[in-house]
Write a structure and sequence with these properties.
Blueprint lengths: L27 H5 L3 H14 L5 H15 L3 E5 L2 H11 L6 E4 L6 H8 L3 E4 L11 H10 L5 E5 L10 H11 L2 E5 L7 E2 L2 E2 L6 E5 L13 E5 L2 H10 L4 E3 L2 E2 L10 H11 L2 H21 L13 E2 L7 E2 L5 E5 L2 H10 L29 H9 E4 L7 H15 L1
Parallel strand pairs: 2-3, 2-4, 4-5, 5-8
Antiparallel strand pairs: 1-9, 6-7, 6-13, 8-9, 10-11, 12-14, 14-15
Helix pairs in contact: 2-9, 3-9, 4-5, 4-8, 6-7, 10-13
Length: about 400
Amino acid sequence: MANTETAQPFMAAPTTHPALPAVPMLDLERQYAPIRDEIIAALAEVVDSRQFILGDFVSRFEQEACQHLGIRHAVGCASGTDALWLALAAVRIQDQAVITTPFSFFASVSSILRAGGKPMLCDIDPVSFNLDATQVKKVLGNAPEHSVAAILPVHLYGQCVAWENFTQLAKEFGLALVEDAAQAWGASRGDIKAGGLGDIAAFSFYPTKNLNAAGDAGTVTTNNPELAERTRMLRQHGMRERYHHDELGWNARMDGFQGAVLSVHLRYIEQRNALRREAAQRYHKLFANAGLAENRVYPEQGVVLPQEIGGGRHIWHQYVIRTARRDALRDFLTAQRVGSEIYYPVPLHRQKALEFLGYEDGAFPEAERAAREVLALPIFPEIRADEQERVVRAVAEFLS
């Protein structure tokens, strides 16, 4: 347990310590250095082939992605946001509602709007931070018949939602299930990996993701051949035949460079995910040994550690603690040259661009409280034990 003395407000600006070595949130130099020659060779192949858009390199990655995830179809595209839009457009949500979480990146909701749907938000589970199926069922019970087309759960921070609960809701209410798996390559629920749980799924390969491109890229995955074919059509301006446009699609194609880079990274993803899991377990032990971990849902004097919920495999895209004095702690860590980030400081229903959705402050108390308390600490496959020890010592110093 944490120190139970009453914490004093942290008022003074912390002193910066420039002599201390930095502990970054992510270090892409460490990731790329061992595989630099493989990456350069892959890029050279693309240049020599001149297959700059789609082509063999994208097709090869799509096939490898299917093998890795145990699914039938993967459709490479230009970004994770495009992947979300393509997935939602493929299941035809036009003029109907899609239920999702207010505690996610902006694209989870903006993609619904871009696909012609109406975002309908539900609160989160305070332990996993994922969409709460109990809250979703309440909303569905009050919604007019046929007004909701789909549910879009987000596998936040690298942990799948309790998918069996959403499968039951989808059957009961006749809904499509679309996975926002942007942060969860390699995560699983039972024996099924993210990307194969729902009707269709979207991944992001933004450079900070656990499976990452050298720029923007994404993919849509599905076991449904009709949805796969429709997704391919939509990613090329709605064309099945060149210059014949069946629908208003978009230019959402993956380029050959990203396909080639992703194929290289895919060779190492299982090893990297295993290292992330080791790093998460090390944090667990360090916080417990320091007496900082509080065994509760909400923090008081110490920190509440993230949990891996039963029945799933967390890949720890982020290691996110809860703490009552989050902003002050983050300032202190910055002064100590320890990286941190807030995912996410403003729930989606309180974003200025989404005010028109009509949700008031207090509409989703769990998401709003999480936005005040969560703090992501440095975690990446190459992080060293001594760096994690420094992170925990800094947190302990602040809380003391």
